[in-house]
Design goal:
128 residues; alpha/beta; 2,3-Dihydroxybiphenyl 1,2-Dioxygenase, domain 1; 2 domains; four-stranded mixed sheet; dioxygenase activity; lyase
Length: 128
């Protein structure tokens, strides 16, 4: 059986510039060259060869719920939550309690929030 490695996340976005600004400001991600095409799709490096691709689809209907999300981990969880507060980004726990983190059964802390297109993002402290 082949081995598989995570490569990228691709999101359809209404306004690629607005989404770029959101992810760059929130996570300090660096833009990298879109080597796949000459399209207006923009790429961000998530480190270690992982990427976030933002694909402009201004007329796309985006439907999602909290169970459909991607998660990032940080060792500076408390500082990140303060960063969300500073940027006035609303977040919640899994049960939708505003401005509250959630502690899973295994002790991992997490928060959830939405990007400008309504995609759910989880940030947790699972940094083994």
């Amino acid at each position: 059986m082949s081995t598989f490695l995570f490569n990228h996340i691709a999101l359809s976005v209404k306004d690629v510039d607005q989404s770029m600004a959101f992810y760059q400001k929130l996570f300090q991600l660096k833009e990298i060259e879109n080597t796949a095409s000459g399209s207006k799709t923009r790429w961000l490096s998530m480190g270690e060869g992982k990427q976030l691709h933002l694909i402009p689809r201004p007329d796309a209907e985006i439907k999602t719920n909290k169970a459909v999300h991607f998660a990032l981990a940080t060792s500076n969880f408390n500082a990140f939550v303060l960063h969300l507060d500073e940027l006035k980004i609303e977040y919640s726990d899994w049960l939708d309690t505003p401005n509250k983190d959630y502690i899973r059964k295994d002790g991992i802390r997490q928060v959830y929030f939405q990007d400008p297109n309504g995609y759910w993002v989880e940030v947790n402290d699972d940094v083994q």
